[in-house]
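<tokenise_the_fold>
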Amino acid sequence: MNVKAEWLVEGIVGAIRGEANKIPDFEYGAIAIRLIAKDYAANKLLGGIFVELDADRDHLFGIKPGAPKTRPAGWRGRKEEAACGGYVYLKLEGCARAVILGYGRRSSDLPDELVTIGRVNTPGAACYDIQKHKLHGQIRIYLGVSGADPLEDEKCVMAGGEYIEKWCEANGFTSIAP
């Protein structure tokens, strides 16, 4: 990961983990961050990490540093374990479909009839667009969290979004947020 992109991603992860730490039993789970450079100026702003435009650069982290991304059975009385590292990407795909079709900027904005294999509308993913100038430099960022209850996941994602908005203000970017 390039230094410029790394700083942004590290700050987002820190903000999400900070919110997750407020949930007493949120020990296992996953954070997904997808970066997409929409033009060459955006790719340059991210340090040239993309070989082609509109390619996705995904990052996956544990909700706690070094912790498994699979939540074990028994959490809050649930019998099954949860593959949070996989499920968070289903949320990102649901969010992406909602954005592309104009329903909104969160996974939960996707209508039920568009849920399919590989895409869910469970809360816990959101999309942010940031840009340096009006005509170029657009970066799309998808954030997702999985591992707690969906509304708790969503709250963690929104903490990451707050970090993005503060980062934009501090660095001369504008943002479109959910």
Q: What stands out?
A: The first strand starts at residue 30 and ends at 37. Residues 90 and 119 are 5 Å apart (CA to CA). DSSP finds four helices and seven strands in the chain.
